[in-house]
Amino acid sequence: MLYQIALTMIYGVGSVHSRQLLEYFGTAEAIFSEKERLLEKVPGIGAKTAAEIKNPAVLTQAESELAFMEKNQISGLFITDNAYPYRLRECVDAPLLLYSKGNIDLNKTRTVSIVGTRNATSYGRDMTEQFVSDLCAAFPDIQIISGLAFGIDIFSHKAALKNNLSTVAVLAHGLDRIYPGVHRSVAIEMLQQGGLLTDYPSGTNPDRQNFVKRNRIVAGLADATIVIESAEKGGSLITADIAFSYSRDVFAFPGKTSDPQSRGCNKLIKLNKAGLITSAADFISAMNWEEKPKVIQAELSFTDIDDDNPVTSLIRQKKEMHINDLAIELEVTISELSVLLFELEMEGKVKALPGGRYRIP
User: Is the pLDDT confidence value at 282 over 50?
Assistant: First the structure.
């Protein structure tokens, strides 16, 4: 883990260049073991950045961070690890390293991000609590992601805890602190039933720009992002836009046109960036997550029997599958699978359903 941490601490090297270095040298350790003159030859690196990689202070800083992690029972999830969230890995700007604390499984079958205004009304609180409660009734293993902020975020976490759901807070600072401090007790409770996650090392302050950056993780971790109350501008709209750019499902609860705290939600719906929902049932239906009755196929055609395409064979076996589950079963990336599914859909061999699910016609 030492070299993976160090790779994120090189001055002037972001996630793009870090991935290039990994592609060239295979592992983080190999990067730091390589000669400076060979590092310079990597496109986009050059002599200045190569010197930064070989700077002894980088490994010293990483050693300090690793010691902090071990002392405080913090785990590191590197982008090549099996436990790294597969949904997030498919995002172009996914962080190389995540720091986590608690009892976290970021690859649960169903995961939903819930975001909204910090200045929530009683309507927003009630909708959040009811939505999470109804989701739990339908899917007791669903996971709730949010950001531990005031308003809708903390209501989401509290509702998840109340319903014994796993819930994860994505933080905009290091795990040596909790912000806001008044939510510390909730954060501690979450460690037994989810946990805390960040891509920032210890010592990082909760600066404003960090909250915008962390929103990509909130969006990237989930199958869908739900916006419950949002003003015309705000962090929740940024999260929704990021989720939309990832081709993830986005939904919003509408509100009165005269209500300032609903203008953002109404705008998302108006611009077709979010589906309109009024309940968990609406959401479940839109995601096509309802339980389907099992149908016994009376007979198979010769093409069914001879079909050795692993994609169609697996979908036929399961009756219907989500693209994320297909990717896990077939051990391929979402991007590779999307191309295959599109070709099969054009050939009439699979049918795309709402919510990223597929079945055989």
Answer: yes
Please state, in angstroms and rounded to a whole number, the distance separating the CA atoms of residues 355 and 290. 11
- The Cα 274–Cα 270 span in angstroms is 8
pLDDT mean across residues, the chain:
90
Q: Please give the backbone phi and psi of residue 348, each rounded to the nearest 5 degrees, phi first.
A: 80, 15
User: What percentage of the chain exceeds 70 in pLDDT?
Assistant: 95
Look up the CATH architecture of domain 1-64: Orthogonal Bundle (1.10)
**CA 201 – CA 269 distance, rounded (Å):** 37
pLDDT of 298 > 70? The answer is no
CATH class of the 302-359 domain in this structure: mainly alpha
Catalogue the E-assigned strands of the chain. 75-78, 97-102, 111-115, 143-146, 166-170, 194-198, 224-227, 249-252, 275-276, 320-322, 351-353, 357-359
pLDDT tens digit sequence for 50-60: 999 999 999 99
Give the relative orientation of helices 263-270 and 235-245 as an angle to the nearest 10 degrees: 20
Pairing mode, strands 97-102 and 194-198: antiparallel
Question: What are the extents of the domains in the chain?
Answer: 1-64, 111-286, 302-359
Residue 148, token pair as written in the block: 């531990």
Contact 198, 99 (CB under 8 A): yes
CATH number of 111-286: 3.40.50.450
The average pLDDT across 247-261 equals 92
pLDDT at 119 exceeding the cut of 80 = yes
* CB 273 within 8 Å of CB 244: yes
DSSP string, 341-355: HHHHHHTTS-EEETT
Cβ atoms within 10 A of the Cβ of 230, count?
Answer: 33
